[in-house]
Structure formats: structure tokens, C-alpha cells
Amino acid sequence: MKTVRLGIVGLGMGALHAANVQSGKVRRAVVTAVADNNPEKFSRAPGARAFATAEELIGSGLVDAVLIATPHYSHTSLGIKALRAGLHVLVEKPISVQLADAQRLLAAHRGKKQVFAAMFNQRTDPFYQKIRALVRGGELGEFHRISWTVTDWFRPAAYYASSAWRATWAGEGGGILLNQCPHNLDLLQWMFGMPVRLRAYCHFGRYHDIEVEDDVTAYLEFANGATGVFTASTGEAPGTNRLEVAAERGRLVYENDRLTFTRNAVPAAEFSRTTKEPFAKPATDEVVFPLTGHGGQHAELLQNFIDAILDGTPLLAPASEGLHSVGLANAMLLSTWTDRTVSLPISGRAYAGWLKKKIATSKRKPRTKSGVTAADLAKSFGR
Ligand SMILES: NC(=O)c1ccc[n+]([C@@H]2O[C@H](COP(=O)([O-])OP(=O)(O)OC[C@H]3O[C@@H](n4cnc5c(N)ncnc54)[C@H](O)[C@@H]3O)[C@@H](O)[C@H]2O)c1
Fold this sequence. Notes:
383 residues; Dihydrodipicolinate Reductase, domain 2; 2 domains; nine-stranded mixed beta sheet
């Protein structure tokens, strides 16, 4: 195979992915087919064969790979169908709404020859790549505390009204944790590993007339004893994106496109043991890393998927790793609902029970044309 024949399902965000291929930003791929259950969207990806359903596209014989960019619940059902049909699959974030679905989806993956990736485009950002390298490469020493405020996800009411499936338990399966923050939760575990326990406080409809969470503060504990605070909101303006890491060898701060490492001349614990001065602190110097831009984002992630199919290039974001951000999001909601600290991984079954109850008692059913079928929901709860 010299060129990958790509099918795209869902022409909201999917139209941007199609444009990235059609404008030449992604090489060695051609969009041969698209599917959307709203035919008005077909004009967003001209030149490709258009299908009214994902199933027809998957069975068409016109595609080697499929990119699933539909509302969240259908990631599981459509992903399983595409994987079972033997196609390579790139699924949008989150890979599924809930852990049990994510596990079913991953179980349909046939093995190494079938490429299965997730659209965690922020992994292409050189700032996050550098932080990960510093943490994992040992340059920071052991990390003690992380504090990540991601309140720059501001969304006005018009956003929640823009598609009928948004902002309901039955349509979207959650709010900021399931839509905006999968990126941050993925990066968090990619850089620092998974916490072992967390306590979260989610606020539902704090800033918007919605039933799902639009504001979150979570306290995290890691296996090495490190702690963390993760804060996110779609209601704050102007909002902040600031990540601070306190580590043995100094402090790392990422904010406003600047990554600064204030280095301790002597690691903190060693200095603490040896000095006789009661108010002494280690001397420091400052390193500002010469990084610019935010990487190739969606086009780079899609190119990596194509290169993995054609050349066996390692994936930047294997779908299997998408389980962690789903697990973190579910754990934060479960901790809020149960008013308790939860240990990770949480039980997918317990979470499914809670989510099912939220859907059953919801007064806001997804509006018409939601793109979430009764079959998707039924499969999500194993009925
Ligand atoms: N990676 C990113 O940066 C990013 C950005 C935005 C959205 N997303 C993700 O993309 C996905 C779609 O979000 P969106 O904002 O594009 O939503 P959207 O509502 O704008 O578009 C979804 C499209 O899918 C179609 N659709 C729904 N169900 C379908 C089905 N079963 N078969 C075929 N078509 C179907 C709808 O008609 C619609 O055109 C979500 O998973 C979202 O989280 C990712």
C-alpha cells in the first residue's frame, strides 16, 4: 500500500480532519469516503463518496482506515464495528464515555497489524513533550507536587446549543471532563503517570444552564507520595493555563508559552539534611527552554497514524492509552457523586451504575438529531 484510503465519520471536527488531508497537510492519504447522518454536512468534504451511515462506509470496500469523529457514545459502537471489519481506526477523544465501554472497544482490537490510535493531538506540543522528557528523564528528580490550572476552556452558552448531543448525560456522557479535558487528563498521565487516589469536586451547571459539570477541582495522590491539584472550568474568562511542578531539583513552571526551570544548586532533600542554618534555602539558577509553537496538532497526529499504517512508525497516541483519561474523568465524577476519595482504577461497573442513574433521572433528554442512537446507549450499558 502506498496511500491510505481514509474514511471519515462525522463532519463536525471530522471536516477539519478532511481538510487537513485534502489541503496536503497530511501526506500519503486520500479521503475516499465520508459519512454523516446529516446529509447537509456532506458539502464540508467535497470530492469524497458520501454515505448516510457509518455502517455503509465501513462495509463499502472504499477505505483502509476510518477516523471516527462522532458524538462520544458512538465511539464505542462504531469503533468496534470498524475494528471487526479489519480496518485501521483513529478515534476522536474521549475513546469512550465510560471505562466499561473503553474496555469493550479495546478488546475488539485485533493486534499489532491493525493500527488503532486516538486523537490526542496535544501530545504533539513541544512544551508538553519537554515537560514529559524532564520528568521521565530524571532531570527534575522526584516530583513532589503538581498544580495544573486549566481554566482557559471558556465556552459560551452558544457552544452548548451548537449540537443537540452536548451537555446531557445521555448525549455527551459528561461535560468538561469528557469533552475538553480528555486532552489535559491524557497529558497529565502521559507526563506524570496515573495517580493512585483522588478526591474531586465537580460543579454541575455552575456557569451554564446545563446538567453536566462545567467546573472541576481535584486533589490527586501518586504512588511516590506526590500530590497534585487539577482545576478546570469552561466558565472563567480570561482563564489560565498554568502548570507548576515542585520537584527535588527545582521548580518547573509552564504558562503563557514559556517553560521555566528554576534549578536548585543542591537537591532540596540533600540540602535540608546538610545545612545548619535554620532559614537557609538552596541557591538557584533559571533555565528558560527555547521552545516555540504548539506542534502540528491534528494534522501531525493524523500523519503519524498514516505513517504507522504504511511504515510501522510507533504511534504518538495508541488508543489503549486512552483508557487512562476515561478512567480519570470517571473517577472525578464518581468521587463527586459519592462524596468520597476514590482509589484508582475505579470499578467500571460501579461507574456505569451511577451514569445510568443520571441518565434515567435527567430532565434534559438530548434534543432531536442528537446523533446518539438508542442502540449506542443500550450497548453502553450492556443491555
Ligand atoms: N481533538 C480535538 O481537538 C477535538 C475538537 C473538537 C471535537 N472533538 C471531538 O470530535 C467528536 C465530534 O465532536 P464535534 O464537535 O465535531 O461534534 P459536532 O456535533 O459538531 O459534529 C458531529 C457530527 O457527527 C454526525 N453524526 C452524529 N452521529 C453520527 C453517526 N452515528 N454516524 C454518522 N455521523 C454522525 C453529526 O451529524 C455531526 O455532523 C467528539 O468526540 C469531540 O470530542 C475533538
